[in-house]
Amino acid sequence: MTTIAPYRSPVQDRRDGFPQLLHAEWTKLRTVRGWVIGMIVAILVTVVISLVFAFAVGNTSCQNGSGKVQHGSACLSSLPTGPGGLPVADDFYFVHQPLAGNGSITVRVSSLAGPSGPLSGLNPTPGLMPWAKAGIIIKQNLSGGSAYAAMMVTGSNGVRMQWNYTGDTAGLPGAVSSASPRWLRLVRAGHTITGYDSADGAHWSQVGTVHLTALPSTVQAGLFATSPQLVTFNSGFATGSMNGGTTKAVAVFDHVSRSGGWPASAWTGGAQGAGSGGYHQAASQFTLTGTGDIAPALSGPGNDAAGREPISFFLVGAVAGLIAVIVVATMFMTAEYRRGLIRTTLTASPGRGRVLAAKAAVIGAAAFVTGLVAAAGAALVAIGIAHATGYQLFPVPWPTELRAIVGTGALTAVAAVLTLAIGTMVRRSASAVTIAIAVIVLPYFLAFTMAVPSTIGEWLLRFTPAAAFALQQSLTQYPQVIAVYTPIGGYLPLAPWIGFAVLCGWTALALAGAAYLLRRRDA
Amino acid sequence: MSLTLSTGQRGYGAWAEAMHAEWTKLRTLASTGWLLAGAVAATVTVSAATAGAATVSPGIDPAKLSLTGVQAGQALFAILGVLAISSEYSTGMIRVTLTAMPRRTVTLAAKAALAGGLALAAAAVAVLVSALAGRFLLPRRGFIPANGYSLLSLGNGADLRAVCGSVLYLALIALLSLGIATAVRDPAVAIGTVLALLYLFPIVATLITDQTWQRHLEQVGPMTAGLYIQATVGVRTLPLTPWQGLGVLALWTAGALILGGLLFRFRDA
Fold first, then answer.
1. To which H or E segment does residue A294 belong?
2. What element of type H or E holds A257?
3. Which of A24, A185, A57, A175 shows the shortest CA–CA distance to A111?
4. Total domain count, chain B
5. Is residue B161 situated within a structural domain?
6. Confidence class of residue A237 from pLDDT cuts 50, 70 and 90?
7. What is the pLDDT of residues A180-196, one digit of tens each?
8. Contact B50 A330 (CB under 8 A)
9. Assigned domain for B4 exists
10. pLDDT tens digits for A49-67?
């Protein structure tokens, strides 16, 4: 007589924990060849689009003033580089003297006006520009892009103290006129420059103080006037049109007084950079006319540094990669329903919320890696080709570029989770893919290609999941620079992390809906 | 004992039976009606929203503006095309279909005729209502003859071309999707491929700074070239004439249908 020992599974108890669930879902994802190929396609497509863009910008052709066709960097306007490493506009009319060592300059501005006659290329003639500037400036030297600090009156933004192209502090509000003139003062002490303003020349208040390490002992100081280009951008149908031209500012100064080391006996007038203008001195009164701007030069169509793109511009292929990821993320859920696998899955792990969480974690992680590798590859390709063709990328601080690259991974990951949630709710592949593309990619398409008016485009990039593409922007919008801030130029309406939060919010809602339906419905 | 055979095994009869069978399948699916209604609703909603938010500025094409919804609604026409065949693969129905109607080319042609016909009907409704919405909304936004914009009218040759062309455009998109879906079979992959093909060309073309590349991409892309048919302003500056543009889309559609047809014919179901 023999006894048969009953079968005992060698598998240990308690093997249905969350790590095991994650492992099971990862095995499903990893072993479907088509899905792995889909993820690889996502990476390749992103990198290939970056490659095409990098070659296209490196070989841009254009006509110069005499009609001769030029290529590559010759098409980019050469701009001076400011103290922060950014390309800048340093164009104005400057009436100056050297200032040796410490000292100060004080003026009264009694008028700032627009052009008196018509301007070429602009109809109707614009009046005084909101950011026309006139005042006093202390500058490292006369070369473009050198360090400076300035006190100024502006067209409609009151008194400002500005320094090193990006710095801006507000002083007295209100417009300047002979009835309410503005007194401005700059005091230099070593590397420190302090700006003051006053409405009556008797009661002074400090506007700001800045530390300019680049200042030598002898600097150039004096009066300046400038008025930025007028650019109007009409968004039509994929055909935004740009109109614009040079504007002019006329400023009247008096009560010019100096203290400290001023070795020269007379003022010298001259246009700085691409600026133009002139000055006229009658007794103690100076009238300056100026054109140009002292400000950061911005990338994007219509702006000073148009044609020079930051690295993040070359991450645009990520939207193509995202379509492939969306397809995989959909099938990761809908294939369970199509094959009936969902019943096995839910038998093995009856906690439905946990199954959804495990799936979301696995597809999110896989999509994050895919998006990150794709973006990093696209960035490296762009940098490599820029080096090879001599194309000058628009400089952006590396943490910002890194945020754009890692952000691409993050947005791909959360978009994949959103897609998974949609797939869980809809259960049918075709509908789920279409809904996911319609809410994530379609708004991006409509806004970027200007298929819809810019008001709707902006709304789409604020409130739809496509807002997360804000993570890819690396350019700064300056309130003191009126420029063409369009999505194509790389300027999105929301700050990077806020845009990402919008996508996360939609995803949380969708996941809640998916969890509810998954529990409520029969599989 | 005699076996009664159904009539019409060959010629016109086989076609008619295939059409009848496919029509029954499409007609009795709840999703078909919803899809068509959704396609019309999406097209009209986006068109009307765009027309309602438009502002007068140089270079704006009122006809194209009123038909903006085509760019969004086409996604649903694409689903229609994809589901016409992919849903059979999802459920295994395709094996029953091919057992009953072993002539694969006839089956596919019947599917194409029905999906194309339904798309054409839905597109006609969607485009006409969109144009009508534009006709009423645009004058309120300042698009009036006093500002140099004529009212949208089917009596105007260019406007008529934009409207009829948009209807054909949407039907061609549905057929293109059918062709791609026949080739790749899986509905998710098919939809992903179609929408990538449609939307990526214009995104890349808009962002690329080089004019030559931009022109080439727009000429080649099925959506960018196909939508030239909507142009009524600045037609001479387009890289292709409107009908040539629609022709490019027709070539894509023909290519996809031929590729799909060949794979369908020579591959196991």
1. strand A294-296
2. strand A249-261
3. A175
4. 1
5. yes
6. very low
7. 999 999 999 999 999 99
8. no
9. no
10. 999 888 887 776 665 555 6
